[in-house]
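Question: what's this shape?

___
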Amino acid sequence: MNPYIIFRFFDFAVATVFGFLVFYRNPRNKLNRLYFLFSITFALWQFISLNLYMASSFRNAYFWAGMEFFWPFAGAFLAHFLILFTQQVKLLKNKLIYIIIYGFPVCYSIFAVSFPSQATSIPAYSPEDNLWYYEDYNEILYYLTVGYLLLIIIVFIFLGIKYYKNLVNQTKRLQTRTILLGLIIPILITFIEEAAYYFDFSSPIPPISPLLILCVFIGYAMWKYELFSFDVMSAAESTMSTMSDALILIDPEGIITDVNKSTCNLLGYREKDLIGKNIDIIFPASGSNFYQEKVWAELEKGEELSDLEVTLVSKGGKQIPVSSSAALVKDRNKKTLGTIYIARDISERKKMENDVKLHMKELKKINEILVGREMQMIKLKNENAELRKNFTNK
């Protein structure tokens, strides 16, 4: 069997397996879903290429060539994934970033469907290899698409290095290092293959897709290091999602990884406004690094934190008194995944306490007045008795 057919099937099978493994590990996590979309889009692309190679006629081969109109979306899903992975969440608040990420794949797909003769690669049959291959294609469109993918990878190599340098947790550093390696290798493979094509020498690299390398490295990092597994589901989602108390999951760097509905109701934020932000955003003195100094430091010492009265600040700036508790969450290997932080609104209790204090203060004043009046009356009685005594003696 031709090696191109073998490797296309290998690309399809491996990408599919990794995609489903990561997705079913945590279907609710956005990163898991984006990785799934990236890997499955790539797998379908390889499946279509496999069918083109094995086509029974030109018409059949041309059909499969036209079905590749969606393949640039693999790059869009990859870019979206990497933005969340490097915690560039603020970028996603700008709607323009979605146009930048998904605009080119949409335009490419529309053009490929509307003008197939201009976009679709023209297949040709090779009797020597006994397969169909791409003989003629729109080079401008092809290199625009390859450039789009390479630009995404290069940009996120720099963002990933910057993110890596700021990490403290060793496990997350290993995760990031693995994914960075997965970004760098496809670029090297692409340059070698392009050089082999233009300078007409045999490439030392087997006909494996560079994107499969990236797919495998990301999938391995997510599985091996349990990347992104710390969220509400791993902390008994079915119970916690219905809690009336605010629940926040925080990674070792102090970044919010998930919240429940009660947190949003209490603080007036939307879920996406909190996830990816530093936990100190919800404390009044956000520059004081309260979480690392007061919560994380105590928990690492083995101290328990319960019924700790603190003040949280809502999105509108309102200060809310809460009674909070915190605990470390660890996996089966005793590796610390982060912190679970629970806060109960005690505004009503504080109001009642303040009301009681106010009433006690008023009662004290009234008592002081009454005692003062009574003392005044005693004094007047004594003076009156003294006057009578003096008058009788005369």
